[in-house]
């Protein structure tokens, strides 16, 4: 499969899984859709033989997502409607973080190959993603710009952690 088509398949699957997770609470299948989205992404990663490469990233994203979102919830920067959760991070959001970790290399490798791109790109991208979630009414940022800064900090930490993992686990790739 050529690389552009493969990237397009990864992008479409990731976006579909994102919407399956984010909009799950607005459907008749609030618990099944995040799992279905995660299974599609996992299936794609296994099918393309990227699971071993993705493993450190998906584990890091699971920890950062659960702990980061839980801390933001506990501190009042982030609010989710009632849904099964881990320490305050709803399971649909945990599925999103897992999907993100699984797709770091095919979709976000450009960001993790540079400290500045990882820090800025993930911080801004995280704020935009959570702002989109607020507009879709699946979460709220109750402290306004302070919530946005807290989300940006969480995602900045995620970006730098993923950058560290890229440098640590890259095998023969350009580590610039």
The structural domain count equals 1
Largest pleated sheet? 2 strands, antiparallel
Q: Which structural class matches the secondary elements? A: mainly alpha
Work out the helix count: 7
Radius of gyration over alpha carbons?
16 Å
Give the amount of beta strand, in percent: under 5%
* Average pLDDT: 92
Indicate the multimeric state: single chain
- Spatial separation of the terminal alpha carbons: 27 Å
Structural summary, described in words:
With 176 residues, the protein is mainly alpha-helical. The chain has one domain. Helix content is 72%, strand content 5%. The chain contains 7 helices and 4 strands; from the N terminus they run αααβββαααβα. It has helices spanning 3-22, 32-47, 51-74, 91-102, 104-112, 115-135, 145-169, and strands at residues 79-80, 85-86, 89-90, 139-140. A hairpin with a 2-residue loop joins strand 2 (85-86) and strand 3.
